[in-house]
Design brief:
- The complex is a heterodimer of chains A (155) and B (310).
- With 155 residues, chain A is mainly beta.
- Helices cover 14% and strands 38% of the residues of chain A.
- Chain B is an alpha/beta fold and 310 residues long.
- Chain B has 2 domains: 5-134 and 292-305, 3-Layer(aba) Sandwich (Rossmann fold); 137-278, 3-Layer(aba) Sandwich (Rossmann fold).
- Chain B has helices spanning 21-32, 56-68, 90-97, 113-119, 136-150, 168-177, 196-205, 238-245, 252-258, 286-305; strands spanning 46-51, 72-76, 103-108, 125-130, 157-161, 183-187, 208-212, 224-227, 263-265.
- The longest helix of chain B has 20 residues, at 286-305.
- Chain B is globular.
- Classes of the chains: A mainly beta (155), B alpha/beta (310).
- Chain A binds chain B through residues 114, 116-119, 121-124, 131-132, 137, 140-146, and chain B through 15, 17, 89-91, 108-113, 115-116, 130-134, 197, 200-201, 204.
Chain lengths: 155, 310
């Protein structure tokens, strides 16, 4: 049985042959993460909410069959839940496991909430400078309005 | 650090966030050489002035600086006469205007407009104010005036008084002063306190500061007082405005009560924050700021265009 299954004995789901496990999501963020990924999956999707974990008081987890995440999706999920870990599964084996790191500049993922920001008026790809990762604080590259994690609105 | 004016050639002046301490000092050192300097080192150079929002003072000051160094300027002072009134994007306007000039000066009501303009052209762009965000040459002339009056930009006690919530001038100056080692006093009515994001930034940078509603309780040992206008339109309730409008009024009697060697600054225009009986007071620096604005802008134009002083 793959590692990610043995470390989570409380989740009673079958092992993935192909797909992605997104683990250690901050409690309450799984549905938002799912909306980032879209819902047009062919394979099965398993969602665990408020699970006990040694690392966090409670966590969420998502297992997606026959679907690997794109770098852009990883960046978006890292914004929602910086603690998330990703395991890519092929033929029941974890072929890759990683925790995303936020880039210095986040491009094209977030909407600037400032109605006076030029990005709300002109066709321009949004850019945000990461000032601090924990707790997350970002700054609009254009209007320079800072945002906290809870204020972030994904595109 | 040795002055290296060439390091500014071709750069944009969009935000004070783009400059570190060494660059700021190098710039201020270079600007000193432009006091009274009027050689035609910008002869044949054209400044494009795109004022999507009116600003007589900044516009005139830049125009004066350009012309005193032999250059010329062209542009518009009202968005109604620009192509954006016909629906043209800002990026397209910039790509067209860059053919007419060597440097673009832009004022726009939208925040981030100058950054977008700078990304849309190869020629240097100067931000003359983008909404409530940045007005970097105002900050540079404030720093220049402060250093000239006090002889240094470190180890000062600086009080900011008035509207600390909406004042772009104050936000930019406070942020830039985090490059230096000073103690700040932030004095405002509770409804016009400095936004939490700026407080977080001061904390992150380790800047020492005190917030207060009462000025005279902390005034005794400050070196610089920087006051700003409290605008009536910020108060939905006129009674609230009446309560605070004179709370921070400074006159000669108040200054004499505080005593010491004070520098009094204000970005102008003033209403009644500073009494006219202080206009002859040796510490009053607010008209100096306006004069230094031309000096600083002459330096900015020359450095970005790579013009050498003769």
């Amino acid at each position: 049985m793959p590692d990610h299954q043995t470390t989570e004995p409380s989740i009673k789901v079958s092992a993935l042959r192909e797909g992605t496990v997104i683990d250690h999501l901050v409690k309450g963020t799984a549905l938002k993460v799912l909306s980032v990924l879209g819902i047009k999956f062919d394979g099965a999707v398993t969602i665990g909410l408020n699970l006990e974990s040694g690392k966090f008081p409670l966590k969420d987890i998502i297992k997606i069959e026959r679907r690997e995440v794109t770098p852009e999706e990883v960046s978006k999920i890292a914004l929602i839940s910086p603690s998330a870990t990703f395991s890519i599964i092929r033929e029941f084996q974890v072929v890759e496991k990683f925790t995303p790191t936020l880039p210095k500049m986040i491009e094209g993922l977030i909407r600037c909430p400032n109605p006076s920001c030029i990005t709300s008026d002109e066709r321009v790809r949004t850019k945000f400078v990461v000032l601090r990762s924990d707790p997350l604080r970002i700054l609009c590259h254009y209007c320079e309005r800072p945002q906290r994690k809870e204020e972030i609105e994904l595109l | 650090m040795a002055v290296q004016p060439l390091s500014f050639v071709g750069r944009d002046l969009v935000s004070m966030r783009d400059f570190n301490r060494e660059e700021l000092i190098a710039f201020l050192d270079e600007a000193e050489h432009f006091e009274g300097y009027e050689e035609p080192i910008l002869k044949g150079r054209i400044l494009g002035t795109l004022f999507f929002e009116p600003s007589t003072r900044t516009h005139l000051s830049f125009s004066s600086a350009m012309q005193r160094l032999g250059g010329t300027d062209l542009g518009f002072a009202d968005a109604k006469v620009s192509s954006t009134a016909k629906g043209e994007s800002l990026a397209d306007t910039i790509r067209v205007v860059e053919n007419y000039c060597d440097l673009i000066l832009i004022r726009h009501w939208m925040e981030g407009a100058a950054r977008l303009a700078a990304e849309s052209t190869e020629i240097p762009v100067i931000n003359a104010g983008d909404g409530t965000n940045q007005h970097p040459t105002q900050t540079l002339l404030d720093l220049y005036t402060m250093r000239k009056r006090r002889g240094r930009l470190d180890n000062l006690k600086i009080a900011f008084i008035g509207d600390l919530k909406y004042s772009r001038t104050v936000h930019s100056l406070i942020e830039t002063l985090t490059h230096f080692d000073n103690e700040l006093f932030l004095v405002s009515p509770s409804s016009l306190r400095i936004p939490p994001a700026f407080i977080e930034e001061l904390d992150d940078r380790g800047t020492v500061y005190t917030e207060d509603e009462e000025f005279f309780s902390i005034a005794s040992d400050v070196d610089v007082i920087y006051t700003t206008r409290i605008q009536q339109e910020r108060f939905p309730d006129p009674v609230e405005y009446e309560k605070v409008k004179n709370a921070y009024r400074i006159d000669r009697a108040a200054i004499e009560r505080i005593g010491g060697d004070l520098t009094l600054m204000h970005p102008l225009p003033r209403l009644n924050e500073i009494s006219t009986d202080l206009d002859g007071y040796p510490g009053s620096a607010y008209f100096d700021q306006a004069r230094n604005g031309v000096t600083v802008r002459k330096a900015v134009l020359s450095l970005l265009l790579g013009a050498h002083r003769a």
